[in-house]
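Minutes, project huddle
Topic: does the predicted pose make sense with iron/sulfur cluster bound?
PN asked that the exact inputs be recorded in the minutes so nobody has to dig through chat later. Recorded below.
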Amino acid sequence: MNYCEIKKNDIANGYGVRTTLFVSGCTNHCKDCFQPQTWDFNYGDPFTKEVEDEILLSLEPYYVNGLTLLGGEPFEPSNQRALVPFLKRVRERYPNKDVWCFTGFTLDGELQRDGSHPRCEVTDEMLSLIDVLVDGRFVAELKDISLRFRGSSNQRLIDLKATLRENKIIPWDKK
Ligand code: SF4
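Predicted holo structure (tokens), as shared on screen:
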């Protein structure tokens, strides 16, 4: 069983109005993490079919741009395995809405490196279901409150579709 929290009509975690799914569990343990309670894999409410349905319904209004995955750590393998089938439902029902995901891992570091902790049998599929990836651990020494959608300057806003297509990191820079 996976655990989570939901925030609807969120305007802080991605472009436009969004539903944000905070998935519980994170082994990164960054210094000064802004929500260490979510390191616990059992924090929050069970991620059930009913919760999935509630999120899908919340995405329906025209003014909701899409879904954001936050943590905890969405790319913990146990979270990936729960999220991939759900993301497929989101994609099927809302092909024109976008999916953002925040991760403490780096795309061209752990997520694409065989043998690393987060890389598992569904990682590539999960990456293929995301539009914008905000990657990298929060580094307290690099904290910068002026950054858009990021906590520290090492973190990157990545246009994941373009990046996977062109096989090089393409920043997301929508105004
Ligand atoms: S990856 Fe995110 S949730 Fe995990 S410790 Fe770092 S800042 Fe906290």
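Observations noted during the meeting:
- Strands lie at 3-10, 17-23, 45-46, 64-70, 98-102, 132-135, 156-159.
- The chain has four helices and seven strands.
No decisions taken; revisit at the next huddle.
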